[in-house]
Automatic annotation (TrEMBL):
Species this chain originates from: Mordavella massiliensis
Protein name: Arylsulfatase
Residue ranges annotated for the Sulfatase N-terminal domain, each copy included: 4-364
GO MF terms, alphabetically ordered: arylsulfatase activity; metal ion binding
InterPro entries: Alkaline_phosphatase_core_sf, Sulfatase_CS, Sulfatase_N
Keywords: Hydrolase, Metal-binding
Length: 486
């Protein structure tokens, strides 16, 4: 079989449950539902360090957080990895193109891609007046450059008045064709026009939405504004202390205190998802019309989720399902990988680090020894198989720093500043409404998962464990000393 074309559709901050095919009662995603119907869905996919930079390090290197060194969010740390997803596919004979978000340093670090049409969204650290010329988004970001050419020097994504981490929502202020979601699809279609037809291609369509700002075109807001939306999930273990203290801050980690603002955030988030879905539909139709679809494989995923006011929380970096569980599916055209079982679901715990070895397996390329992930083609062929019994996740997040062990059925959480532990039986309680950490019937299982976490943390430089117990209050910087720095 000849090498297939590979299209990786990457989204930002998309929850694993916020899709039609995942059973969400409100969100409409007909094109992604189509891909799910034609391929295999991994419904226990996670981001082991659920924020933008660390998650993308896992995606591009195939490494776990303690190996790629990003265990939290920190800007301006150089990316100097020996093996990257695009670099290895380039060596395997692919022409490699990324369109949209990279979120690496420096901004124009191509990570092995032959070409990048860049839009990282609104990055605070790249917009300040003191930023060097080449690291300014207004210079390095292709979308910002294009938008100013189209609409004038004053045009900006901030014209809506909404910040990139805000729970506020309002429709896009310009014509829909100027929206960054449309721009990513436009640039992908232009790549298909100018590609070398003699070579297989790897196209990473890296969309920023539904990451805030929640600013989809007005048509998509209209789809949801009058609907009776499912309320955020609030269980029996949360407190409102943080919400009462921070719930009137526009970019709070708790979300809004005002329930109407929480509803508006839901409307804006769902509007961005359906807008994204329709733009992915444009890309799919172009692949069909150019007679590329049947010779291509499509992988769809996200870097992390969005709490969206579940448990009185907002944004990501948390150990809960809204934050760390992500969508992942593989769909193939009729001429490639016919053994992939259409309309199937795999329950194995998988992670972003598994994407790189999976794409390399599709290309028939060797997997570097530095890669920790597993190729998922075997699971796509037989969804009843599994690749790991449990997954360790983590995030340096100040007072909210956390580590967790998740399996196909349950989750153990350790908050590394306070030492607080939590346990959720996901089979019975998928929305983590009941913390059973003190349930006598669960103590043996909790001991087992705690031992898995101790095993995973043993030898780490932070000193989280002595090999017998977990030790809270240890220093936990977002970038490990061993991370690749210039």
């Amino acid at each position: 079989m000849k090498q297939p074309n590979i299209i990786l559709i990457m989204t930002d901050q998309l929850r694993g449950d916020a899709l039609g095919y995942a059973g969400h009662p409100d969100v409409k995603t007909p094109y992604l539902d189509t891909l799910a119907s034609k391929g295999v869905v991994f419904d226990r996919a996670y981001s082991a360090c659920p924020s933008c930079i660390a998650a993308r390090a896992a995606l591009h290197t195939g490494m776990e957080p303690s190996h790629h060194g990003r265990v939290g969010y920190e800007d301006n740390i150089p990316w100097n990895y020996s093996h990257t997803m695009a670099g290895q596919l380039s060596k395997a004979g692919y022409y490699t193109q990324c369109v949209g978000k990279m979120h690496v340093h420096p901004l124009r670090n191509y990570l092995g891609f032959h070409n990048v049409d860049l839009h990282d969204g609104y990055l605070h650290c790249a917009r300040y007046a003191s930023v060097p010329y080449q690291e300014s988004q207004f210079v390095a970001d292709d979308y910002f450059h294009w938008l100013k050419q189209e609409l004038g020097a004053d045009a900006d994504v901030t014209d809506t008045g909404i910040d990139c981490n805000s729970f506020l929502a309002r429709p896009w202020t310009h014509e829909e064709k100027y929206h960054p979601t449309n721009w990513v699809t436009d640039r992908c279609l232009d790549f298909l026009r100018r590609r070398d037809p003699r070579k297989p291609f790897f196209l990473m369509a890296s969309y920023l939405r539904p990451h805030p700002p929640f600013d989809a075109p007005s048509h998509y807001f209209d789809l949801y504004k009058d609907k009776d939306l499912r309320k955020p999930f609030i269980g029996t273990w949360e407190t409102t202390e943080d919400l009462e203290k921070n719930g009137r801050i526009f970019d709070s980690k708790t979300g809004p205190l005002d329930p109407e603002l929480a509803r508006q955030a839901q409307i804006g988030y769902y509007a961005c998802i359906t807008h994204l879905d329709h733009q992915i539909g444009r890309l799919i139709m172009a692949l069909i019309e150019q007679e590329l679809y049947d010779d291509s494989v499509i992988v769809f995923t996200a870097d992390h989720g969005e709490e969206l006011c579940d448990h009185h929380m907002f944004r990501k970096s948390r150990p809960y399902e809204g934050s760390c569980r992500i969508p992942l599916l593989i769909a193939a055209g009729k001429n490639v990988f016919p053994e992939i079982k259409a309309h199937s679901v795999c329950h194995s715990v998988v992670e972003l680090r598994d994407v790189m070895p999976t794409l390399l397996a599709m290309a028939g390329a060797p997997v570097p020894d530095s890669v920790d992930g597993h190729e998922l083609l075997s699971l796509a062929r037989d969804p009843k198989e599994t690749v790991r019994p449990w997954l360790h996740g983590e995030h340096s997040y100040g007072e909210y720093s956390n580590h967790w062990i998740v399996t196909e059925t349950d989750k153990f959480i350790w908050h590394s500043v306070t030492g607080r532990e939590q346990y959720f039986c996901l089979t019975e309680d998928p929305h983590e409404l009941t913390d059973r950490i003190h349930d006598p019937a669960c103590l043996e299982r909790i001991d087992t998962l705690r031992s898995c976490l101790i095993q995973s943390l043993t030898g780490r430089p932070e000193g989280f464990t002595d090999g017998k117990r977990l030790i809270p209050g240890r220093p936990y910087p977002p970038t490990m000393a061993g991370a690749t720095k210039a």
